[in-house]
Amino acid sequence: MIYHITPRSEWVSAQAAGSYRPASLESEGFIHCSTARQVPAVAQAFYRGGVGLIILAVNVRFLLSEVIWEPPAGKPTRGVSPQDLFPHIYGPINFDAVLRIHDLILVTNGVVITPQLQEEN
Question: Dmax over Cα atoms in the chain, in whole Å?
Fold first, then answer.
């Protein structure tokens, strides 16, 4: 299982449009994802202060787009090793690959509350 953080509104819009294609797919060529262990650090670094965020639990076995595990661009996020690889999805996320949707809660003092996430498929 890999995970993607997104605003709930973008997920709802994608369902109406027929596919999930966040802005990063157009601008960077892939969709940023994380492992269960990486989610808290990524949420802390890039989504602090965000509201209405969800975590998509994506089963790579059902994903139609290619997943490539790559190092982070630039300096690694605090709490993530420089040796860590991140799953990047090179194409849209098909809806049947999303097995669960979790709420992501970011408390004002910077604490990230994430649900219990499954590490493997």
Answer: 38
- Alpha-carbon distance 62 to 21, whole Å? 17
CB within 8 A of 110, min separation 6: which ones? Answer: 44, 48
pLDDT in tens, 8-59: 999 999 998 888 999 999 999 999 999 998 998 888 888 877 889 999 999 9
Closest among 74, 77, 67 to 33, alpha carbons compared:
67
The CATH number of domain 2-113, selected from 3.20.20.60, 3.40.718.10, 3.20.170.20, 3.30.1440.10: 3.20.170.20
Predicted TM-score of the model (pTM)? 0.89
Q: Where are the domains of the chain?
A: 2-113
Q: Closest by alpha carbon to 111, among 29, 58, 48, 62? A: 48
DSSP code, position 93? B
- d(CA 23, CA 89) in angstroms, rounded, equals 13
